[in-house]
From TrEMBL:
<comment type="similarity">
    <text>Belongs to the cation diffusion facilitator (CDF) transporter (TC 2.A.4) family.</text>
</comment>
<dbReference type="InterPro" id="IPR036837">
    <property type="entry name" value="Cation_efflux_CTD_sf"/>
</dbReference>
<keyword id="KW-1133">Transmembrane helix</keyword>
<feature type="transmembrane region" description="Helical">
    <location>
        <begin position="83"/>
        <end position="104"/>
    </location>
</feature>
<dbReference type="InterPro" id="IPR027470">
    <property type="entry name" value="Cation_efflux_CTD"/>
</dbReference>
<feature type="transmembrane region" description="Helical">
    <location>
        <begin position="9"/>
        <end position="30"/>
    </location>
</feature>
<feature type="transmembrane region" description="Helical">
    <location>
        <begin position="42"/>
        <end position="62"/>
    </location>
</feature>
<dbReference type="InterPro" id="IPR058533">
    <property type="entry name" value="Cation_efflux_TM"/>
</dbReference>
<dbReference type="InterPro" id="IPR002524">
    <property type="entry name" value="Cation_efflux"/>
</dbReference>
<feature type="transmembrane region" description="Helical">
    <location>
        <begin position="152"/>
        <end position="172"/>
    </location>
</feature>
<protein>
    <submittedName>
        <fullName>Cation transporter</fullName>
    </submittedName>
</protein>
<dbReference type="Pfam" id="PF16916">
    <property type="entry name" value="ZT_dimer"/>
</dbReference>
<feature type="transmembrane region" description="Helical">
    <location>
        <begin position="110"/>
        <end position="131"/>
    </location>
</feature>
<feature type="domain" description="Cation efflux protein transmembrane">
    <location>
        <begin position="10"/>
        <end position="203"/>
    </location>
</feature>
<keyword id="KW-0472">Membrane</keyword>
<feature type="domain" description="Cation efflux protein cytoplasmic">
    <location>
        <begin position="210"/>
        <end position="286"/>
    </location>
</feature>
<dbReference type="InterPro" id="IPR050291">
    <property type="entry name" value="CDF_Transporter"/>
</dbReference>
Length: 336
């Protein structure tokens, strides 16, 4: 898996370097600030891809005494660096556009510039789509971030061609700086969301997508002996996941039975979720006075009360640090 990540990022670096040269040559022959916008973003592509390559190498290192959860969070840091570079590039482009308004320059050889930008857009579009697809498949935020950036670059390149075409046929040179400022705002907007996602990952902010996926897997494989799951936490370390949860089991189970049920929960999550998954399960005994109302165990010889409801496991109630009998208490309190 990690070798495929490295291979994809190496291709990204190589192609980004080639397109960087193409775009700056396009700017050189046209003197267009709008094309400079595209060229500046390519510098970000190269730097970000190089950092992404290093982060993938680092995230693949095994756990050690200083990093008991591995090195996967470097991928969040990589995405944050890429987002920050995009924002800086956008600010520089706005500065260049303002200078263009004050000191306008004549634009030359626009058709050739459009052709070069179009070629770059096609290549970036294909590479961006591939990286995003592989990033989701390999559960790599670094590949996804790099792919999203390249896809954004491709879209901006094609819109840029349309803008330059208008300038070429109308002769309205002032549009060059307006277009470059519009693109600068657009890439700053995209950079912000990359930084936002990076900070969320580094701060262990809850990821609704990861939690919902975990809940779905547990519901799909739910067993009657799993009376209750609560206090569940899902943390991501790059492409890896760490899950803590409390599992309520019948209190009369012996240690071997408890071990087998815990192991099955771990196995279900490890096989159902992408990447490396580490699961810590704390086993709780059931409380007959509280749990019988929603316990799904059939022919239970210690049952005190008949089963009255099946609690639906959701991301909301499974994350609470309490058994689901609180939910049942409210259910009975609401009944007339």
């Amino acid at each position: 898996m990690n070798s495929e990540k490295k291979r994809l990022i190496i291709w990204s670096v190589a192609i980004s370097l080639l397109l960087l040269a193409v775009k700056f040559y396009s700017f050189y022959i046209t003197r267009s600030n709008a094309i400079l916008t595209d060229a500046m973003e390519s510098i970000v592509n190269v730097v970000a891809s190089c950092f992404a390559l290093y982060s993938i190498y680092l995230s693949a290192l095994p756990k050690d005494s200083n990093h008991p959860y591995g090195h996967g969070k470097i991928e969040f840091f990589s995405a944050g660096i890429e987002g920050t570079l995009i924002i800086i590039a956008g600010i520089f482009i706005i500065y260049q556009a303002i200078l263009g308004f004050i000191f306008p320059q004549e634009l030359t050889d626009l058709p050739m510039g459009m052709a070069l930008v179009g070629f770059s857009g096609l290549v970036n579009g294909f590479l961006g789509y591939l990286l995003q697809k592989k990033g989701k498949l390999l559960n790599s935020i670094t590949l996804e971030a790099d792919g999203r950036h390249l896809s954004t670059d491709a879209i901006s390149s094609f819109v840029l061609i349309a803008g330059i075409g208008i300038i070429y046929f109308s002769g309205w040179i002032f549009l060059d700086n307006i277009i470059s400022m519009a693109f600068a705002i657009y890439i700053i907007y995209n950079g912000y969301f990359l930084v936002r996602r990076s900070v969320a990952g580094l701060m262990d902010e809850s990821n609704p997508e990861a939690i919902n996926q975990t809940v779905e897997i547990l519901n799909r494989n739910r067993k009657s002996n799993w009376i209750d799951i609560h206090n569940m936490r899902v943390q991501q370390y790059g492409g890896d996941s760490h899950i803590d949860l409390h599992l309520t089991l019948p209190y009369y189970f012996d240690l071997i039975q408890v071990h087998d049920e815990v192991h099955e929960v771990e196995e279900v999550l490890e096989q159902g979720l992408p990447g490396y998954v580490e699961v810590f399960v704390h086993a709780d005994p059931c409380l007959p006075d509280s749990c019988c109302h929603y316990c799904q165990v059939k022919d239970c010889h210690v049952r005190k009360y008949p089963r009255s409801k099946k609690v639906k496991w959701t991301a909301y109630n499974m994350s609470k640090n309490q058994k689901h009998y609180h939910e049942l208490s409210q259910f009975f309190a609401d009944k007339p």
